[in-house]
Amino acid sequence: MIAGQLYGPCYIGGWSAAEYWDLTEQIFRTVVVMTVQHPRDRNPTIKQTDFLLRSVQEKALFGVKSVWRGQVKVDVSDPTRTMLDMLSDPQLGGGIRSTVDMLKNYLRSEKKDLALLLDYANRLGNGAVFKRLGFLLEKFSPDDQEAIAQCRERLTTGNAKLDPALETDKLVTRWRLWVPQRWLEDVAV
Is 0.90 surpassed by the pTM of this model? Predict the structure, then answer.
């Protein structure tokens, strides 16, 4: 409620939305807010609530559902947009390991809609999303061949990191994606 008043137009996203949609059992103290504003303080504490603010372009305000918290309407990213945002910036999911856990839950849920996820990714225009999603689907949901093929068709030039916050040492050339060695091993990460 505070976020909408201070940072609107905005929506609740990342791990906060994942909690709302039951994509994670983790409890995060900080509320993720995606806003069109460009606040100086990206990590404010307001009324004993910590916020993580990320700026988005106004044209990126799609895939949002309005939910009621008491008497107040709050915009929350839908489950598919939530996954898109975390694939675009794994920090919004608490890092790639937590993001992958949420992706696995999404893929096993009735909320799964890979066609919509790919449509949203096209609209967002972040090429790293297709690299991360294709790699992760290949590893954790290999039966989704159509989505994997569509990710491969949409590869952009240049290389991305699976998680920009991690040290990486291996380039998966078919995905143009730098990953830590442990992500290439057959054990579940």
Answer: yes
